[in-house]
Amino acid sequence: MPRSPILATVAAALAAVLVATPGAPAATPQPPDCRLLVKLQEKEHALPQTALVARDPSGGLLSRTRSFTFGVRGPRAALGGLSRVEWALDGVTKHVDDRGPSFQWSGGFAGAQSIPAGDHTLKVTAVPKTGSPASVEFPLAATDCPFVEFQAFPARGPGKGATELSWDSAFQSDSGPPLTAVAARVERNIASALPAGVRGQTVGTLTVERPGKAAIKRRMRAPRNGGVLVREGALAVTLHPGVKEFLTVTGLPAGTQSVRVVLRGPGARLAHAQDPCRKALVRGILRAGTATASEVQGGSYAC
Question: Do 124 and 176 belong to one domain?
């Protein structure tokens, strides 16, 4: 994974898009039929007749390759009035937290054995010290397929530091679908250009990883004409200066699951944050055949 420059804040996945939206109960993917999956945004479910909400950090789709923490949120006074919170999966109580004032249910990596793969209903019950319990139910799909991972660390400015972009079809796993192409798209505060002063110079590196095979590593050079930084057979890394989708990597070799592009030295002038004091956001696009997924990442520097 790329090494981050020192950032004041790094945005989590602020937006996520799937061509085929995951989470439908009848279509929850499982190995070996994993597809490009993007982590959904968290949801909050109101507990009736209280000021409390049950937090679902998975947004209804939980990957058992990652940790989870369900919780109950609300005003301090409302939380202080609780005796305990219970979580029941398909009618069976799985966890009770009676410690407060933060009521949570957490599970670990690599299996999260307390939630089997499949489609479930999760019921959250808040039991007050006095009065009647309040409950809410919501669907929860659990999969052993990992989510995609995109990381973006824009350079502080033209020629300052490095811009690092990486795409993985499966987070910390080699069970994702093979990637055929990836791209980077401007969401906010990103500039792309091909200045005359960098043409002909080495501007960074490309790394392509495939399970069970040696990584492909290539230097990228700014062309005298056009925007192709690497061309080797069908494989091409192309800069599209001034265009929203400013970088594309196409013609990836069979079995590709991870792609990393680093623009450093003169390359930091090709793509960088326009204003380092504002949040810079990049949408990473992953393509596996006809399937497409994307998520947004980025951050800002301390100013």
Answer: no
d(CA 93, CA 95) in angstroms, rounded, equals 6
pTM, full prediction:
0.84
Name the residue with tokens 């990597």.
Answer: 249
Q: Are 201 and 223 in contact (CB under 8 A)?
A: no
* Domain carrying residue 50: 32-143
- To which residue do tokens 């811009």 refer? 163
Sequence letter at residue 229: L
Q: Which of 103, 89, 97, 92 is nearest to 54 (CA)?
A: 103
49/145 Cα distance (integer angstroms):
37
Q: Are residue 55 and residue 84 in the same domain, yes or no?
A: yes
Residue pLDDT, tens place only, 187-246: 999 999 999 999 999 999 999 999 999 999 999 999 887 789 999 999 999 999 999 999
Give the end of a domain, one of 143, 165, 195. Answer: 143
What CATH number does residue 90 fall under? 2.60.40.10
Half-sphere exposure of 222 (CA within 13 A, CB side): 22
